[in-house]
Amino acid sequence: MAIARSKYTRKTNSSRADLAIPVTSTTTSQASPGLLLTHKRDGVTTLTMNAPARLNGWTMQMMDALKRAFMIAATDDETKVLVLTGADPYYCAGVNLAATLKLAHPRKLHAMITRHNQELFDAFLDFPKPILVAVNGPAIGASVTSATLCDGIIASKKATFSTPFTWLQIPPEGCSSVQFERLMGQANAERMLGEEGWRPSAQEALEAGLVQWVAPHDQLLDEAQRIALDWIAADASRSYRGGSTPDELKAVNAAESVALASAFLSAPFIANQFKFLWGKKKRGPALMFLFLWISRPVWARFL
Question: Quick one: CATH architecture of 19-265?
């Protein structure tokens, strides 16, 4: 199967996979109390990412909490449909890189980043029951791509959708190299994944085919509950949008994860992260990326 990635990413000076020294932590994190809220009603389990001060960003703690909650809901007889949403004002600001990277041996980094990325999206793909994503505000990066792996997306009128992969100097992830085009067509997929970096509003996302429903902000969860109850009444089973199959998407995810790990550890990405964090006055993380950027010619020889 061909996986379309290159047309959505900037060319770099490197012709091979570049590895570096930041790595996703391998330590199993304990979720902070209240980090992920669970509510059950009439067969519908609603999970609310509850770190609004961090814009519900996917730290290791948040991702671990999500994966554990998915595992519990998968075998819970009371859960017929799962709804995933966020605490206002954001749905999710995507993976919080500064909170998930640390120093490690270069050869372990590529494998670890690959594995963690693959496991994150496989958690969505492997979930055996219908999943409805209720996007209550801005959604960025992995939180957008993971949503397209679910049965449906309902968006608040306050929602926006952003996948700034080209700006970040990384390839598409979360099966977006395939799934975006299937849901929105080639032109809209290129607008979101390419140089334009299109960030559609809820209504624009509806018209493009990224989402299926739009609701007033204060009615979002009520509408999500209604859709979920309709699915239960229809005895709906897990489905995958765009005519995709889970096995196919898992193969895409595996290939994308390898490419993403290489990009994360490349010189263009590291330099970009330094400039971004320095501009945000996050001096500690910025200096770590600066060190990695400057020292890369040395540690790259140990790959």
Answer: Alpha-Beta Complex (3.90)
